[in-house]
UniProtKB/TrEMBL annotation:
Residue ranges occupied by any Response regulatory domain in the UniProt entry: 3-120
InterPro entries cross-referenced by the UniProt entry: CheY-like_superfamily, Homeodomain-like_sf, HTH_AraC, HTH_AraC-typ_CS, Sig_transdc_resp-reg_receiver, Tscrpt_reg_AraC-type_HTH
4-aspartylphosphate carried by residues: D55
Family annotation (Pfam families): HTH_18 (PF12833), Response_reg (PF00072)
Source organism phylogeny: Bacteria, Bacillati, Bacillota, Bacilli, Bacillales
Classification via SUPFAM superfamilies: CheY-like, Homeodomain-like
Chain ranges of the HTH araC/xylS-type domain: 464-562
Protein name: Response regulator
Keyword terms of this UniProt record: DNA-binding, Phosphoprotein, Transcription, Transcription regulation
Gene3D superfamilies according to UniProt: 3.40.50.2300, Homeodomain-like
Amino acid sequence: MYRILIVDDEPIIANGIYDLLNQMTSSELDLYKCYSGDEALDILNRIRVDIVITDINMPGMDGLQLMEEINRIWPGCKVVFLTGYSSFDYVYTAIRYPNVSYILKTESYKRIVETVEAKMAEIAEELKLLDLAAKVERQMDTIRHFQQMSYLGDLLLGETDPSDRDEQLRELGLAFEPASPVALIIGRIDGQDSYAAFTGKSQRMYSVNVITEEKLTAVSAFCFAPVRSNMVWIVQPNDSFRGVIADQADHPDHPGQAGCQSQSKAGWHKFAAYLNGMLESVQNLCRETLGFTVSFAVGSVPVLWEDIHQKYRLLCGIVGFKWGDGTEMLLSEEQMVRHDTDRYNAADEREGNLPLRMEKLKACLEAGQRDEFMRLYDGLTGGVERTDANYFKTVERYYAVSSILLSYVNEKKLADKLPELHRIGQIEAHDSSSGAMFYLAGLANTLFDLRGAEQETSTASVIESIQRYIGDSLQGDLSLLQLAETFYFNPSYLSRLYKQATGTNLSDYIIDRRVAAAKELLADKQYKINEIAAKVGVDSVSNFSRYFKKHTGMTPQQYRDVHMK
């Protein structure tokens, strides 16, 4: 799917090009239109755009100024200038930039279609030209890279000494500013078994990292590490984004404070939006060039170095509720239900080995990682049948695990679905120590099964809400971007989720609802055709006539004449 933005201060031109491209059937397009450079910039700050078709001479921000912003925000975006001016100055300024084409308004609509198709072909060709294998091999041969990964893994698990962190970063060649906050990204290859062969699993992870590093051009420091089944990146914004953050932090509405609080919330939201857009490109490349899908979760707020461990556990908890069924996702911390980060206490993990192992077991339960949970559980309880004499140690482990399971049951309100739950608080109710541990393993498996069923129910509820909203809002904005923002999803993920759940494209469902509503209104003679057009969200009678005829084979008047007889 290609995302195209049309910008022209003359609505008739913007609407005409929008309708023209909407009729292209050779490619799946996600189209947006607006009538000023400022409106376009607002859209570009919210979503990644592949192609921008824009007038040059517009009031306020003109096309050339908009192009400067496009190159700053989305360097790979293709720009097509559509203008009535053939001045050499305009042409010269435009052709100095890569990815830019120039079309006169006097040229035909056919020329516009040909140019858009050429730009889409360029994008497709760029996807094929990435030389992944050579870059992956070079990274795997770099000893320092493995040292960086090892340190990052320990940092995320809270197993590093904060007193020598600045020195460690310098020695490892990591170009981070230790006094500045960072953003955290977690990725996972969808459907990958925790016990998959190491070679194949690591190669896939490194391939994803190569593409990610290629795309994240607006970061000044970047570090990657595989941690268990996750891929983790720590990033800091480069000078262009730091300038935006600093400017807004100095604004009277954002008085400067220490640490993360001195960072502009709006500035970091723009940086998070940039990360989301680039990771969407990474997902497309992985799907089209590597043959598998990848899910990501992005922290929406800055995090200090000493809080990275807690932030990592927070994001793991967030994505754990959503990941697990193999569906490609791109999640934002802001879009998910917020968790209480205070429940992760790093000091507790250092008090002994058992608390640390319990924290890992708890994280697996919350993340839906059944295989990893059972592997850790078997390691924790293995040999119980041979150590009945050590009764008190067995009791300690039993109640430590049962506490984790019971907390999860209470949090998810699952008690009424577990008829044998009353046995969890009485180790004496079991025939033996090994029987007690077998009971907990069975309870954990039941919780994982219920979690999977809950995810399916949650998806059905979301789809039902979207369809109800569409039915109630036919005369309003039903663009993919508007729906995604209304229901707190990434636009591409919402489109794929709807298609996967219903077997129908979201855009087709909207068309069907609008056409059905139009038919019903046309059968009622009290409504004029221009009133019906407005009620179903079409901005003019002529556009409504074309729209209705395209999908029914009749004009609105012809349909009314047939059904009013």
